[in-house]
Amino acid sequence: MASDVLVIGAGAVGAYVVEFLARRRDVRGVAVVDSRPGLAEGVAWRARLGALQEGIDAHVQGWEADAADVDAIEETVRACKPRVVLHTATILTVRELAQRLRAETFARIRATGMAGFLPAQLYLGLRVQKALERLSPRPLLVTMPFPDFTNQILASCGTAPVTGIGNVDNLASELQAMAAVSLGISPLKTTAMVVASHTTAESFQRDGAAGAGRWYARVFAAGVDVTDKLDIDALMKESARRMQSVLIEARVASSAIKIVLGLIVGEGKLVHGAGPLGLPGGWPLRLSPGGPEIVLPPTIDHATALAINLEGQRLGGLAEVTPEGTMVLEPSITTMMHDEFGLRLDAVPIDVIEETALALRAALDRRIATDG
Prior knowledge:
Layout: E1 5-8, H1 12-22, E2 30-34, H2 39-53, E3 60-64, H3 70-80, E4 84-87, H4 94-100, H5 103-112, H6 118-133, E5 140-143, H7 147-157, E6 163-164, H8 168-183, E7 190-195, H9 198-207, E8 216-221, E9 224-225, H10 232-243, H11 249-264, E10 270-274, E11 282-288, E12 291-294, H12 302-315, E13 318-321, E14 327-329, H13 331-341, E15 347-348, H14 353-371
Parallel strand pairs: 1-2, 1-4, 2-3, 4-5, 5-6
Antiparallel strand pairs: 7-8, 8-9, 10-11, 11-12, 13-14, 14-15
């Protein structure tokens, strides 16, 4: 049976996405794949039952397959015939780093930047991309693992992902809601347009402030720019305070839903994408079934937005992505990864990303065992 969306990975975010999409009457069908026995089937069945309680006969399928197996993913995609593939799987998550390493170790990682773990974020994405390259027509690819870093590298290996989810989209939704509260109007009458990198988004999530990174934001109420009437720093700090005691996976999944629906339904609504078409950082977009269009506010040009995002990328530890896809890490990342995990990472070419990812996974397992 053909599905509109195939979700690769039935973890915390992927499972929410399946649940939310199953309850949409404008989605023809949803499929989910995961390597863990029974998980995708269980997530699919739970989503179908939840939709049924809301009077919707949802078509949801669960498939067991390993995202690292290119042939298995190709076979699954051929069977599901999705219009959009949402890739959420990774072999190493930030939540795992936070929960299983000592607090001081994780604090150093965060302070230095997450770029040292990019090979692990790319490992499955490269294989999913390879499977999709075998197909014609090829479904659109949307990514979750560190997209405003990794999508640049994926773009050098084949067809670039349409965009990634989360990060800047999360910032924009917070600013939209907090601005509406401040102005005393409905958030549906408020629009936020934001340019910001993963690094800046993480700083807001952690500290309620942009930190060392630049970002650019404008707020419109009923089409009128009201940015100068708002204390944006204070509003974002308050939003971060409210979020401190709750998990964010459902909100990240909501970003995925909005972006996936934009590619399926094509209503031209404003969204924010991470790494759209292989660009660094986060950008305001309008989506259609044909793909994304970058839509900046009139007060900033493309070159300035790109400079902001490249600056954020370097603060996150990624000095450069070469045209061939080699990731060049900042010296501070090289030092931290050697000190904490015994790995020497400086420039990682495309052809060694997979072996580097597996070495990262093994090094993390050793460190967890030591810290434990």
